């Protein structure tokens, strides 16, 4: 029997082996870009290797490149790099056919080099190693699969005058199908992921470079605003811990340079503001606790922040609100809408704002960069539109917001509430003196007192932190002589209007949960 890989037929298979190498290379890079986009935006192996090459190229060669290609030098570099990848992958494919597993070894070696280039240059992304590692594994696996098909096709086809077996046609078809689909998918996914990563990375840079204006007034934090009890939530929620709720599949990307806010509808004059126009109005600092209607009793969809912003009523006044309107329909760049009662945003005594900063930083992208609404006392879905681009003055009779036909009330003031942060059910505590502590909120009204009942005993008054204002939550605390066993700790708040939280539970739909938080705590002896 003739030796495989010899003669005309053998050359043909070498060409297909080179092709399978290129397909594996494409899958390597495509998968790497996808992983980078998902977990480590700055860890693109191709760009990392490119930067590495730029770093090691001698200065005279660099100057030659700039002199010869001008501003296209980076394109030329990436083009050359791409060509090198194609040639190396083709070689890897050929090797895998004639000297397995050398081809796979080439892919893994490339993976190791790309990983070295990526982790040494991704500036702190702890998952920077993931894209090249996962990419190399995907490329190697595809190479193994394709090589097996190609070999089966070759061996079935035989050489010279031998006739093909019926099986070889199937192997050939599968070879091209797998190679074709995986290359096309890898290129599509890779290019899509790269474009997405690049856009977000640069928007992140724009956000980082943004200079926040100095506010005309800042929030005064009174003495005793924060209790020193372990396990209680901080008075201000760090941005990275702040809950996030929205319908956006990917975080909308809005450049403050091109962002505008349109105020239209039942107004005397349509107004369009740029980001700079908004800053020029002057910003103030506000402390406001945001709450989601989906927050279950005892849940974490509530957070407190210091916001920099401009009162919405000032912006509406520029347009001139007409009689008969009772609602502002705010629209986000992603099409999301919220219906806010007009009176809530025109009330002189309510700090309804267009916010541009959160806890001393420009809004994080996922919290609405560059501009969002924050309205004290209303659940987020009817007031806190992120990436806001339009305020339409209208009526509840004429317009409807995103959540209204989906089972939630058109108007939704926040129900005042309280929760136990520590101790936690599921985390036993030791008998003795145990601090019980948590949070309570009654935005726009204020918390008057918080009471705790152990095992349905008498209500005992808790110590409160000093409120920053009536729009922020407060911490509360009570010392407990805990005895071994299991105990219910119930908490209820009384607001400054004299209302007491009732025991009866309400579900989150249509207008927010209600009831006492009453965790069961285990105390060990
Ligand atoms: N554009 C947009 N804005 C939105 C939402 C949304 O889905 N899209 N969700 C709202 C809801 S339900 C809440 S509770 C708050 C949450 O804001 P956060 O994610 O900054 O905590 O944003 C509001 N703003
Ligand atoms: Mo929400």
From TrEMBL:
<dbReference type="GO" id="GO:0043546">
    <property type="term" value="F:molybdopterin cofactor binding"/>
</dbReference>
<feature type="domain" description="Oxidoreductase molybdopterin-binding">
    <location>
        <begin position="249"/>
        <end position="399"/>
    </location>
</feature>
<feature type="transmembrane region" description="Helical">
    <location>
        <begin position="13"/>
        <end position="31"/>
    </location>
</feature>
<feature type="transmembrane region" description="Helical">
    <location>
        <begin position="175"/>
        <end position="193"/>
    </location>
</feature>
<dbReference type="InterPro" id="IPR000572">
    <property type="entry name" value="OxRdtase_Mopterin-bd_dom"/>
</dbReference>
<dbReference type="InterPro" id="IPR014756">
    <property type="entry name" value="Ig_E-set"/>
</dbReference>
<dbReference type="GO" id="GO:0020037">
    <property type="term" value="F:heme binding"/>
</dbReference>
<feature type="transmembrane region" description="Helical">
    <location>
        <begin position="129"/>
        <end position="147"/>
    </location>
</feature>
<feature type="transmembrane region" description="Helical">
    <location>
        <begin position="77"/>
        <end position="95"/>
    </location>
</feature>
<dbReference type="GO" id="GO:0006790">
    <property type="term" value="P:sulfur compound metabolic process"/>
</dbReference>
<keyword id="KW-0472">Membrane</keyword>
<dbReference type="Pfam" id="PF00174">
    <property type="entry name" value="Oxidored_molyb"/>
</dbReference>
<keyword id="KW-0812">Transmembrane</keyword>
<dbReference type="GO" id="GO:0008482">
    <property type="term" value="F:sulfite oxidase activity"/>
</dbReference>
<protein>
    <submittedName>
        <fullName>DMSO/TMAO reductase YedYZ, molybdopterin-dependent catalytic subunit</fullName>
    </submittedName>
</protein>
<feature type="transmembrane region" description="Helical">
    <location>
        <begin position="102"/>
        <end position="123"/>
    </location>
</feature>
<dbReference type="InterPro" id="IPR036374">
    <property type="entry name" value="OxRdtase_Mopterin-bd_sf"/>
</dbReference>
<keyword id="KW-1133">Transmembrane helix</keyword>
């Amino acid at each position: 029997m003739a030796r495989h890989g010899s003669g005309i037929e053998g050359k043909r298979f070498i060409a297909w082996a080179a092709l399978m190498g290129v397909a594996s290379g494409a899958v390597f890079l495509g998968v790497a870009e996808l992983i980078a986009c998902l977990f480590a935006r700055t860890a693109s192996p191709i760009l990392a290797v490119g930067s590495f090459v730029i770093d090691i190229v001698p200065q005279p060669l660099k100057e030659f490149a700039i002199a010869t290609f001008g501003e296209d030098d980076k394109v030329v570099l990436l083009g050359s790099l791409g060509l090198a990848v194609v040639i190396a992958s083709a070689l890897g494919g050929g090797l895998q056919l004639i000297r397995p597993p050398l081809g796979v070894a080439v892919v893994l070696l490339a993976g190791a080099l790309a990983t070295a280039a990526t982790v040494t240059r991704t500036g702190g992304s702890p998952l920077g190693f993931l894209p090249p590692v996962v990419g190399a594994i995907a490329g190697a696996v595809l190479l193994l699969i394709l090589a097996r098909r190609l070999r089966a096709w070759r061996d079935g086809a035989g050489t010279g005058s031998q006739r093909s077996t019926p099986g070889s046609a199937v192997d050939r078809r599968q070879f091209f199908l797998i190679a074709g689909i995986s290359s096309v998918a890898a290129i599509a996914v890779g290019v899509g992921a790269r474009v997405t990563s690049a856009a977000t990375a640069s928007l992140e840079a724009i956000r980082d470079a943004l200079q926040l204006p100095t506010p005309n007034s800042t929030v005064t934090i009174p003495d005793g605003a924060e209790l020193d009890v372990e396990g209680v939530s901080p008075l201000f929620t760090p941005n990275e811990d702040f809950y996030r709720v929205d319908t956006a599949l990917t975080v909308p990307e809005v450049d403050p340079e091109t962002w505008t806010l349109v105020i239209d509808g039942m107004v005397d004059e349509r107004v369009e503001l740029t980001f700079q126009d908004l800053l020029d109005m002057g910003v103030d600092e506000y402390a406001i606790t945001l709450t989601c209607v989906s927050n279950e009793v005892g849940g974490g969809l509530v957070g407190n922040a210091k916001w920099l912003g401009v009162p919405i009523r000032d912006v509406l006044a520029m347009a001139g609100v007409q009689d008969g309107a009772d609602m502002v329909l705010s629209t986000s760049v992603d099409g999301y809408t919220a219906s806010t009662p007009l009176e809530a945003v025109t009330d002189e005594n309510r700090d309804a704002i267009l916010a541009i900063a959160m806890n001393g930083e420009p809004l994080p992208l996922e919290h609405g960069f560059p501009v969002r609404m924050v309205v004290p006392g209303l659940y987020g879905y009817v007031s806190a539109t992120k990436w806001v681009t339009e305020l339409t003055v209208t009526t509840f009779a004429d317009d409807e917001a995103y959540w209204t036909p989906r089972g939630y009330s058109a108007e939704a003031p926040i129900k005042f509430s309280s929760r136990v942060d520590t101790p936690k059910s599921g985390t036993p505590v030791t008998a003795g003196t145990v601090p019980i502590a948590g949070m309570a909120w009654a935005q726009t009204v204020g918390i008057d007192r918080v009471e705790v009942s152990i095992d349905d005993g008498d209500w005992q008054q808790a110590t409160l932190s000093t409120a920053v204002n009536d729009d922020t939550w407060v911490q509360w605390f009570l010392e407990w002589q805990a005895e071994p066993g299991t105990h219910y700790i119930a908490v209820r708040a009384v607001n400054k209007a004299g209302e007491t939280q009732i025991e009866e539970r309400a579900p989150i739909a249509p207008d927010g949960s209600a009831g006492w938080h009453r965790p069961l705590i285990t105390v060990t002896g």
